[in-house]
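Deliverable D2.4 — example input (structure tokens):
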């Protein structure tokens, strides 16, 4: 089972931030795909909720020094 979640990301100021966050997310167990957009300060992940939670995904982004919050 795979869910898609959208989230807001604060604190990204250059395109290297985007690559950095995408790399962090893609390496997380249970995350199948991650796309981050600088212009909209947002991102989307496909993840397996039996392996990783939204809170864990948000924590991984915040550990890298950004603000993050899932929509809905
Ligand atoms: Mo750009 Mo982002 O110099 O953490 S990589 S601001």
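Example output (designed residues):
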């Amino acid at each position: 089972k795979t869910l898609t979640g959208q989230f807001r990301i604060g604190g990204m100021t250059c395109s290297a931030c985007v690559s950095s966050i995408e790399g962090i997310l893609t390496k997380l167990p249970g995350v199948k795909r991650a796309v981050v957009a600088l212009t909209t300060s947002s991102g989307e992940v496909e993840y397996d909720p039996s392996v990783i939670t939204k809170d864990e995904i948000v924590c991984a982004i915040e550990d890298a020094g950004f603000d993050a919050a899932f929509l809905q």
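The pocket of dioxo(di-mu-sulfide)dimolybdenum is lined by residues 13-14, 16-17, 20 (CB under 6 Å).
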